[in-house]
Design a protein that fits this description.
By secondary structure, this protein is α/β, with parallel strands linked by helices. The chain folds into two domains: about 210 residues, no CATH class; about 60 residues, no CATH class. About 35% of the residues lie in helices and about 20% in strands. The chain contains eight helices and eight strands. Strands 1-6-5-2-3-4-7-8 form an eight-stranded mixed β-sheet. α6 links the parallel β5 and β6. α5 crosses α6. The longest helix is centred in the middle third of the chain and has 19 residues. It is globular and about 55 Å long.
Amino acid sequence: MAHSQTDHAESSASIKEVAHRFLDETGDTTFYGSGKKLILGAHGVSLSFGMGIVRIDRPLADVRQELAALQREVEQDPLLNVLPSVERRIRSGGFFFHACKDSPDVRSVLMHYLRELPCEAEIVMGRKIPAIFERRHHGKDEEFYADMLSHLLKRRMKRERKLVLNVAERGSSTREHVLAEALWLALERAHDWGGLDAIKSHVVFNVQTPRTEPLLTVSDYLCWSVQRVFEQGETRYYDYLVDKIRLVVDLYDHSRYDGHRNYYTKKNRLTAANKLGPPFA
């Protein structure tokens, strides 16, 4: 389904350039269990939540076709199609790549492809800090999601174009009012950052699933490779794909705000030292 947001620049009819970007998230937005008990770091509950936006620098139809072919290869590979996680997806409508659920053998298929794919990602990671969640996001998952998404969008408003944001569906977080809130926050931040001249794009949201839009798996895998560093201190996937990751922002690392030391690039890489510790107070 597609969600069209407010036309805040010129009418879409007058904008010739159309740019597609692909967005997915990694981790979860869970903070509390029953009785509002803090369960950060418990089994299945992450210490961080991240979102990424990807630009693909090849004809999208060609990349989509190649990803679909890789999915069929996995479905037809007798070494891989017997894995429970693969079998389940085949039975439910067809295999698609999903980084956190794929086995290492399956993962390697897409990792090798992504290493050669001309693309670029920017990823924002949000440490799950209860005080920030309650104060800034009012204890609501949807507000957390909208805040994170706005940081990915705020610097993408300067060009006169139609910007189509293909977003991986995520329950109530990708409902129209949440996406509208994210866009409003992004516009506000873009205005504060660069004035009215910083706002020229016409934004359209297109909410999809990786089964209907294989290109979302590019963002999924790049985000997951970064989150592995934050959650596990494991850098090998990130190091393997780092040339595709232009920027990682550790959004709530207040200790590194001076000099933008919470901004990580190919020259200032994430390391095992970026692994998050015990739950945050």
